[in-house]
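Reopening this one. Same input as before:
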Amino acid sequence: MFEDILDDETFFGRSYDNVKFPCTPYYLSFRNCTFTKVDFSSCNLEKIDFKTCSFFNCDFRNANFSNNGIKELTFTNCNLLGIDFSDSILIDSTINDSNLSYGNFSKVRFKNFKFNNCSLKSSSFDEVKFKRIEFNNCDLEEVMFMNTSLDKIKLNTSNIKNIKISLNDLKGAIVNMNQALDLSLLLGIKIEDGD
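Same output, byte for byte:
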């Protein structure tokens, strides 16, 4: 299916099923393509350009998506464990029901992006810029937010247990009552019932 790939080749409107993606050094573009059960694990995807593509049940474990521009992509039920999106721009895209634990999102710029029912446990968001981001029913346990403002970002439906964040970056985040009690530990507050 990927035989005889040429450098700087563009593919339009194709569907790929149950194949291993070639970890090629070539520049490739995919437009309006669908990938189902495709194995991208450990591939370097820096030179691969995806736009308006959908991924279903794909394996991206330890893939390198860094230094990339990603626009109008949908990932559904994918394994993105250890994915590296660092220094990328992620626009108008959604990731649904997927595992992104241990992901690297350092210096990513997000615009109109949604994480729905995803695990992002122990992932790193360092020097990230958010513009219209949603974390809906996500597991953010032990996620590190460094130099990344969560002002006006709703975390109230997600698990934020043991997140690592500065008080300045946490300012303005939208959380529920139980989360607020957990976050009070960051302030060193001890809560006791009155006599």
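So the earlier flakiness isn't reproducible anymore. For the record, The chain has a mean pLDDT of 91.
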